[in-house]
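Hey, resending since the last one bounced:
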Amino acid sequence: MKRMKKYLLFLVTVCLLAACSDDNSIPKGKSSLKITAASIEDFNYAESRTFEVKLQNVSSTAIKQPEGWNTSLKDGILTVVAPQKGTANILKSGKIEIVATGDDQSTLNASFEVKVFHYVTFENADESYLAGPTSYGENLYSDYTGEYLYGGYDDLESGLFFHTSNEFYNGGIAISQWNDKETKLYTNQCSVYYGDHNQKNGGHNHSKTFAVVYYSSFSGEEATSIDFIDDNAEYIIDHLYIANSSYAALSMLQGDNTAKKFSFEDNDWLKITIQGFNAAGEKTSEVEAYLADFRKSDAGGVLTEWKRVDLSSLGKVHKIQFSMNSSDIGDYGMNTPAYFCIDDIAVAL
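The structure tokens again:
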């Protein structure tokens, strides 16, 4: 699974006096337990991961885990296996905890939270679903005469359908592997601004495949929506990852014939809004995320990597839809190219 593995050092050291210290300051003979993991670790169904555990002067250990999860500790390596999807009586989230008894009879413990999701990674997308045959995406338009005409993408495991329009200039979501980071303007509309130039490693965590979203204010959000094929289905879409398209990023970084170069002097910004809707069509909530932020001197400027966006506040949804806005507005709406990319959509099935 393609996730950015930004491991924080989750350090728990319990000494005889219950004081925390680093490796160099632990007195010889004292008992200690350390585990390297993020405070929350996300898993795909049936995924197996390993974490380093350091034990000092420990006589015994025991591991506690949520129902349906499997764990083992051997030679300083903790192995955690998430449950299979569809297995009865499993907990989709909980705490992995190591409890140890020190040689000095002290009790040591360290823990971290775990969650399991189905991730829509797009990696299994058939060739017929990929934008091409160039990074313009000629097969996203009805006049394409090649072998595969794109008509939307469905993820069979989650039951999610990614909408588009018959003509991509009316908005839509397309599956892509392009990451041309140098070609400007719309002829490169299907590239993500990430990875090694033209090496097809621009997806989240340098995977091949992602989705590019084009928002058209004239067509509305329906063409840039994701919903469950089952009309009654409602699930939590916990988070996803976003990145800039090359078209939008190069426009904001350099300016072009229709859009301005972004600057801190002008407090420029580009953001997306993600709205959730239940099966009855009622809006549940919305989340905003910035693809460029020049509003303050310490803001991040143009996003040049994948960023996680928490969608859990939307609650259970049947559909999410995307819209965009920018500080650079003209007579016909946004001057900034209304494109961005998404990947690794976490669904709590």
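The two ends are 16 Å apart (CA to CA).

Sorry for the duplicate.
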